[in-house]
Fold these 4 entries.
Entry 1:
Amino acid sequence: MKHCITIADFTPEQINHILDVAIALRDQRASGRGNDPILKGQTLAMLFEKPSLRTRVSFEQAMYELGGNAIVLSNSEVGLGKRESVADVTRVLAGMVDGVAARVFEHTKLTEMADNTSMPIINMLSDYSHPCQALADIMTLIDEFGRDLAGRTLTYIGDGNNVALSLASICSKLGINFSIATPVGYELPQTEVDAILAHNPAFKFKASTSPADVVKDTDAIYTDTWVSMGQEEEKAQRLKEFDGFQINDELLAQAPDHAIVLHCLPAYRGIEITDSVMDGPRSRVFPEAHNRLHAQKGVLAVLMGNQ
Ligand code: CP
Ligand code: NVA
């Protein structure tokens, strides 16, 4: 495992290894002794083209707790691909730090970085995917349902976006069934679904345009914003087209009693999810957010700490 750019690049064994390391580091931290300094002397450069709370804090704190250092760079100072080419930025950083994590618009910036260095490149979200979020989400399912999730079902309701794609991909690798309801025109790209199914013909994937159709038989219901970063101009149109896709008490009443609710956050309360669901007994959104710290430690420890 050299980089963490997209879930599709990982084998199930590699995903399970990252999760095992993440869970072990979480247990070690919970023991009160803190983590071993497995990244002592190492630095992660973190580059943001878009805003972030969870991703920034989880990676920076993870580096600190593992004995390393993090440098946070905003795009107004770096100008990735504008002030300087992606390749040149990467070559410069490679002589000074031990890994680069980036949140970008165009996914190809991440693959271009990886093509220009042997140090780890980590995807902190691109328009295409959000693999580190998906790892934390699976940790949260493990916390609820146990280590073997094969045969469980994750249901995603909303936009067929970066978060949805990484979830579909990780579910396909771990034997988790995945169902998704989106408005017409907001489905996961068919080429991506075809590629996932080609790699995992046994993957149980269901797509619908009706939320009621996918919540009846599930273990977890997931949603994300209807307006991702960079889509602000489409907001009015999207809010209209996603009408009926809100996670609310009426929809939740149609799901099995044990089904939990997840959201990668930030949540737009009253839009894609109601307060009563977010703050209700079936919500796991805050433990899910906290698992970002542990999942990101797993990624860093494996890629940079030889774990
Ligand atoms: N879920 C997530 O990636 O949150 P941030 O955008 O705050 O990092
Ligand atoms: N789909 C959202 C996720 C935010 C964490 C976005 O890309 O803005």
Entry 2:
Amino acid sequence: MSEGIGARVLRKEDKRFITGKGRYTDDIIEANQAYAAFVRSPHAHARIVSLDTSAALAMEGVETVLTGPELVADGIGNIICGWGITSKDGTPMNMGAWSALATEKVRYVGDAVAIVVADSKSQAKLAAEAVVVTYEELPVVVGSVEALAPGAPQLHDNAPGNLIFDWEIGDLAPTDAALASAAHVTEMEITNNRLAPNPMEPRSAIATFNEAEDHYTLYTTSQNPHVARLVLSAFYNVAPEHKLRVIAPDVGGGFGSKIYIYPEEIACLWASMKSGCSVKWTSDRTEAFLTDAHGRDHVSTAKIGFDSDGKIVGLKVNTKANLGAYMSLFSSAVPTYLYATLLSGQYDIANIYCDVQAVYTNTVPVDAYRGAGRPEACYVVERIMETAAREMGMDPAELRSKNFVRSFPHQTPVIMAYDSGDFDANLKQAQEAADVAGFAARKAEAASRGKLRGMGYSNYIEACGIAPSAAVGSLGAGVGLWESAEVRVNPVGTIEILTGSHSHGQGHETTFAQIVSERFDLPTENIQIVHGDTDKVQFGMGTYGSRSGAVGMSAIVKAMDKVEAKVKKIAAHVLEAGEDDIVIEGGAVKVAGTDKQMLWHEVGLAAYTAHNIPEGMEPGLKESAFYDPTNFTFPAGCYICEVEVDPETGVTEVVQFVASDDFGTIINPMIVEGQVHGGIAQGIGQAMLENVVYDAAGQQLSASYMDYAMPRADDLPNYSVHHASTTCPGNPLGMKGCGEAGAIGSPPAVINAITDAIGNNNLSMPATPSAVWAALQDVSQKLAAE
Ligand code: MCN
């Protein structure tokens, strides 16, 4: 079938998206619709002295105003972090309490203290301003290094020194010994800047309590509605699981920021029960900057040692991870198991040791953002490899290649067992596409125009298809991360696929249909993907960690295996042939080598009319499956960036960006290329433009698009995207995830290119014109002094 695996099928969902017919949470209006606004702390750290809601409650159109103490009195539970981390001394992590509405203290600007429900959005906002809160301001700390310093302001009583955990991985003594004996050691301080996620659709929720049926419905901008339902019922005590329906309709991007259950969802559900209204809240853009979980924010020191032949002998890293004011759902996993387990990069390194201090600060909670831990790991490894090559006077590609892992499976010293890959193939393909041989001439030509031209590599690897329940369970995850699917063949032969994965921009309605089209040789228009509704789909773990292809689709394959077996039994019975002789092709189920056949829909009809199926067979044609892989998938690749810097101004242009990726089997090359383009745009954004900036008082100075520089089309080059794939042995389709690769691999390539151009390694992200100009001045001063 031309629409099967490998076909560039246009996205089925785009018709409604690009004609403005998408149905997002804020588009939905319930009967008895009321609107919520939150009263938020203007201080980064303060004690709540008093809170007076009487003036707000007296205002016209106000249904209710509810506060933290009332929420606690109603037994609503604290927000939890679902991944336990044990410190190196064996103690569990120090988790401070996070109430959906603050009770005694506020710990970041934007912390919610009350919810106001009124008949219109503007009335709710006006009434929120009428809530009088008296605060006693407390000292503030925003940086992780400062928060760990003696005498720093304390956020949570049960986290002395603001330390959430002090975790380690790898072996310290052999790593120290290897570094001590190394012929060359490179040492660097590496900062990974804090980012705001910025999905196009801001977060939104509508909660409806139906008193007559004692039932709750929550529409929400979630990447994992079933997990939301589970957590809301099991931990927050908002509604019993069987009486709560969670629907994530069209969701306009998430990039990780919509995995978690936020205070607003809890408060809206509770406020609906209290007020009898359907309660809707939609974040505005400033609220999004102030309250959506941020990403990254690592400060690291790294040391890498080489023998005299350029082979790596050891890598040692210390990282301070800023987790903000509270721990959100996956926050503890991001700087630990999603980060340090990838520090081996594409290289065969015998000794690795990393320790991570996770820290509370008076900032927005930090959790997964596209790549989640893996961009941070890739940045450390690829920045230090490039710097080491320069220090040793070696070609950076040659140094990398000398250390590549070449035999699989490969066990790293930091847990991961890489299953497949061909790093030489990606390097070679990228070098050819980037015309590395012609770089010297291009550099000379740029110099003739007064420009500095530089080239930078990044050879990334990531672990995605986040799943293996046994693995993640033993590493502290509260739940297994399998996926489920149901394949329903209707009596007329059309097919519905119910999946626990959730699409919020990744094109699942198309790619998931393609694998069904491939298997049953049917057009994708006859195949419907159903997702995002806990009343329709049995259960699911949702979408993050580029897992929907490798895990979600694998569950569909398992369910299709069962459907195919039944289809063959029915056809063999009707056509009086052996099951082994039955083939499915061209919209029919045939006896191979004969003209005997049933049309596909005739098999569907036979299954449901039931008088024509084998004796003892259950009627119907629908099967479900759960899939739990035994390993992650390991996408990898080589990115090469070329930049031109104007030395007068520091203004830098990315003039070429080449990607060679290994995503295993590719279902839809067009969608995969789109994913890579989007990821690289975010990576270039991080490297050159984006930065969340706090002042010393904990106020965000970058909470609008006037100050937070999102990448725009004219900041980005035309990408040159290629694939050199190896098959993933760990899932039936041989796929590796592609959704995060671009954001993981690109930042070090950009910074390596700029530092190459300016001749100064000491440059942090974002490489704004002023930062690049300042780094150039350092070089000139050094030269003048010599
Ligand atoms: N695919 C394919 N062949 C492969 C791998 C994937 O055709 N070898 C297809 C898949 O079928 C799917 C898409 O590519 O249609 C992405 O698949 P996958 O890599 O499995 O990632 P997920 O679908 O699980 O998406 C999650 C991933 C993550 S973790 C973030 S963050 C992210 C991303 O995807 N957020 C996104 N891409 C995004 N794209 C958009 N538009 N919006 C987001 O919020």
Entry 3:
Amino acid sequence: MARVALVTGGTRGIGAAISKALKAAGCEVAANYAGNDAAAEAFRAETGIAVYKWSVADYDACAAGIKAVEEAQGPVDILVNNAGITRDGMFHKMTPQQWKEVIDTNLTGLFNMTHPVFPGMRARGFGRIINISSVNGQKGQMGQVNYSAAKAGDIGFTRALAQEGAFKGVTVNAVCPGYIGTEMVRAIDAEVLKKNILPQIPVGRLGEPEEIARCVAFLASDDAGFITGSTISANGGQFFS
Ligand code: NDP
């Protein structure tokens, strides 16, 4: 039977590439999103992958959304916590709301999504949880205290939960992308990108969403059963951890 994979933020950017890679690997895929109905509908029409709208920042919405996925497609075997946002600003100007929105989505979202599926994975003796963190959670980034804190938290979450899932066949890993050419990064001013960001990347280019998706598809596979608690850096040589 095909494994059921649920990808948060799975309709655009890196998440869309992950959803497609998991489908290509033979999974039955569900892609969640927050509000961009037009993008989600275009993605559904292009790929045939089922889409579900709720916010990962809302625990009750996650529980209800996961229930709907499981009723339609079966128990979730693979969870990819990919949904993420930025609300950048220097710390002395950062508002409590900028802090809260990023923590609620990028860190608490992992609790909200993982808590409802983890008991079933343990009971069935198989599970794959893959958390999309960031190079900026590993090294810290000026103007992103909120984002760096949340993404560093994702790594701690991964390492702790890996220890709880290991003897029940549930692996938990993190992937830390560097700069990937999605809308999130293309929103950065082109001159800033060229002058400040590309020179930091030894391979001399942005990464492709598919390069992250292939890492995730491997971690989700049966072949990756001995890898848990890991953090895979996919950043073009920008930072070694
Ligand atoms: P995009 O902005 O291109 O896409 C984000 C996706 O997440 C969208 O599908 C969006 O839904 C969804 N989303 C946002 N908030 C929520 C929410 N509260 N609940 C459910 N879904 C939500 O992002 P990227 O593809 O660039 O980034 C994906 C992940 O990779 C993020 O976690 C990001 O932090 C991380 N990352 C990205 C890097 C990059 O260079 N792009 C570098 C390092 C890490 P909708 O379409 O409805 O808005």
Entry 4:
Amino acid sequence: MSAEVFSGLWSEIESIGRVSSGGYMRYALDTPDLVLRDWFRNQADRRDMPVTDDGNGNLFAWWGDAWGRDAVLTGSHFDSVPHGGGYDGPLGIVSGFLAVDQLRAAGHRPARPMAVVAFVEEEGGRFGLPCLGSRLLTGAIDPAKAAALTDREGVTFGEALGATPAGPLPGLTSRISALVELHIEQGRQLEVPVGVASAIWPHGRWRFDFTGHGDHAGTTRMADRRDPMLTFAYTVLAANKEARLAGAHATMARVEVEPNATNAIPSLVRGWLDARAADTATMDGVVDAVVKRATERAGRDGTEVAVTSESLSAEVTFDTELAARIAGMLGDAPILPTGAGHDAGVLSAQVPTAMLFVRNPTGISHSPAEHAEPDDCAAGVDALATVLRELT
Ligand code: GLV
Ligand code: MN
Ligand code: MN
Ligand code: MN
């Protein structure tokens, strides 16, 4: 496929949800995401691909029988992290439609159904739980629990969806024979246009509620303070240190402060820890060490800390045979692991899944600076079409 053809379709969504930072605010089921979902239905219509909704907010555009046996799925997600890049997610959906075009133009007749899928709320940017749509589809989360998740305005996922989610698809494992998710690469690892995923690091999110005594910044003596900001600050540094010592990744990047006033000692600081490692024991070890150090520090600061586990994504090893087969189809493409979570990782617990990565020249992601060259994106579409032709 030429870079021009890729860019032609890409330009249709490029400005949707883009804000002045140059990044994207595409929260699941919020206006830009709803515009993208309409765009998805239009693209499907243009290609005579009927669209089904699994009742969980995930959309499927079908080439062949909807939910016939042994379908091969390809796709990704539209939602972004706040001020995120434009490729993380949508690249996989746009590439899915373009791969269908390419296969049809070449006269391919799939022997089994194929669908382009758009998973809902992959980033957890709005309702806090990543891969919500794929967790619902596979039964990894209780629909009532998912329905009750709230966004920052107090809107529940059930309200945004307009229904209680339907939950797992009956007969999922006989209906889906494979999922191939194409995604922009998010590290600094891929030096050729296209690679294949081997594994996803286990990862999770923990909420730390630090409580102290709100008081006046001008009149409260330093010795009398019970300032949870201090405990929080210490915990941020401890997380960084523990992760470095363990060869893991730990990040505290989201924080809420009450009352969040320049001249008031806070009564509450709420911070989120994102921790990841190559294996679960290492990740758990880092989290345990951070909790221990935060608790000790709270004792010294006269504050309290309560920790809640908000999400866990288990270690994923993608179907090794499928990855090797795909790498072979693509002329010995490199096979590499990633520290980023994906819906394909959730599906991999039940069906053979694989991922294709498209080169990212700087490796930057979850940032407005995320970028992929149109030539590499076009190579990604070619690779995806090759794989889908083989699998269908
Ligand atoms: C999602 O992209 C994540 O890995 O957090
Ligand atoms: Mn992401
Ligand atoms: Mn993604
Ligand atoms: Mn992700």
